[in-house]
């Protein structure tokens, strides 16, 4: 059985950890509120951009040629991964990396799973960078992000390198893997096809068959809107991932704080029992000594 000194040392350590996790929980909660506001504000624009591009591409699909719309046999795959920048956020990073591995197993390449020789990675966030540096995949881009307040310029930098990979023919399809923010308790890893751009199923199912008149011409219009659409997609994924990371960290630190409290309660009980055992032992020794003197 541990001594009183050892138990008290463990209690002090648990209290110190509890203070740290509680502070991290409060910081994550404050950052989550700002990140959630950015997600809510950006979603309508991103959804409308996706809807407009889907409708326009279906309306002018027969007459428009653009490098970002070119469909090729998927022999080489590019994957853009937006991961966490730090740890202490529960299973957030593990779930995201599992999603990346799922894409690597079923990346649409003819013949099944992709190979390291046919894969190029663009990695944003230290967790993905650390993970894939130890694996035989070609990392063609690494990005350090501002996880407190990500900017549209950061998303444009990632999107530009992804577009260059695709238009140069180095890859035939590009997937974007990120974590969609649903709530502070629920974050869902997502994998979407980034390039070539395709019309959404819900647009196709809506039955809109309007005859569009393009002004300026369709080639010019799509030439300006398609890169912007890719930038918007990456930016939306970026702010969703940041909000998800803060939500996961807040939840993990809340659980850690509660667990530290339970540990402190258990150690305090053990300390009380040890103290009572010590008192009982001393009383027994005193009584034994008194009986010995009487005898």
From TrEMBL:
It comes from the Bacteria. It is found in: Cell membrane; Membrane. Coiled coil: none annotated. GO terms for biological process: proton motive force-driven plasma membrane ATP synthesis. One of its GO terms (cellular component) is proton-transporting ATP synthase complex. GO terms for molecular function: ATP binding; proton-transporting ATP synthase activity, rotational mechanism. It is a peripheral membrane protein. SUPFAM superfamilies: ATP synthase (F1-ATPase), gamma subunit. Its main location: membrane. NCBIfam families: ATPsyn_F1gamma. F-type ATPases have 2 components, CF(1) - the catalytic core - and CF(0) - the membrane proton channel. CF(1) has five subunits: alpha(3), beta(3), gamma(1), delta(1), epsilon(1). CF(0) has three main subunits: a, b and c. Belongs to the ATPase gamma chain family. This is ATP synthase gamma chain. The lineage of its organism: Bacteria, Bacillati, Armatimonadota, Armatimonadia, Armatimonadales.
């Amino acid at each position: 059985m541990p001594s009183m000194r050892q138990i008290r040392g463990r209690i002090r350590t648990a209290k110190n950890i509890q203070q740290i996790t509680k502070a991290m929980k409060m910081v994550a909660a404050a950052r989550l509120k700002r990140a959630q506001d950015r997600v809510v504000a950006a979603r309508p624009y991103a959804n409308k951009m996706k809807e407009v591009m889907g409708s326009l591409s279906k309306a002018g699909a027969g007459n428009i040629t653009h490098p970002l719309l070119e469909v090729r046999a998927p022999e080489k795959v590019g994957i853009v991964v937006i991961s966490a920048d730090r740890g202490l956020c529960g299973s957030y990073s593990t779930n995201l990396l599992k999603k990346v591995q799922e894409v690597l197993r079923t990346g649409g390449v003819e013949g099944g799973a992709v190979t390291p020789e046919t894969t190029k990675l663009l990695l944003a966030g230290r967790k993905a960078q650390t993970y894939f540096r130890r694996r035989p995949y070609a990392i063609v881009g690494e990005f350090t992000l501002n996880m407190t307040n990500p900017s549209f310029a950061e998303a444009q930098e990632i999107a530009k390198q992804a577009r260059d990979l695709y238009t140069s023919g180095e890859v035939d399809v590009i997937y974007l893997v990120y974590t969609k923010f649903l709530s502070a308790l629920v974050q869902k890893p997502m994998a979407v096809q980034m390039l070539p751009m395709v019309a959404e199923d819900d647009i196709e199912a809506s039955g809109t068959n309007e005859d569009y008149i393009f002004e300026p011409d369709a080639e010019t219009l799509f030439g300006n809107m398609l890169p912007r659409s890719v930038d918007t997609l990456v930016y939306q994924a970026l702010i969703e991932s940041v909000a998800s990371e803060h939500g996961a960290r807040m939840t993990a630190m809340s659980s850690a704080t509660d667990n530290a409290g339970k540990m402190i309660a258990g150690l305090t009980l053990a300390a009380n029992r040890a103290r009572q055992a010590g008192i009982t032992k001393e009383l027994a020794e005193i009584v034994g000594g008194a009986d010995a003197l009487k005898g």
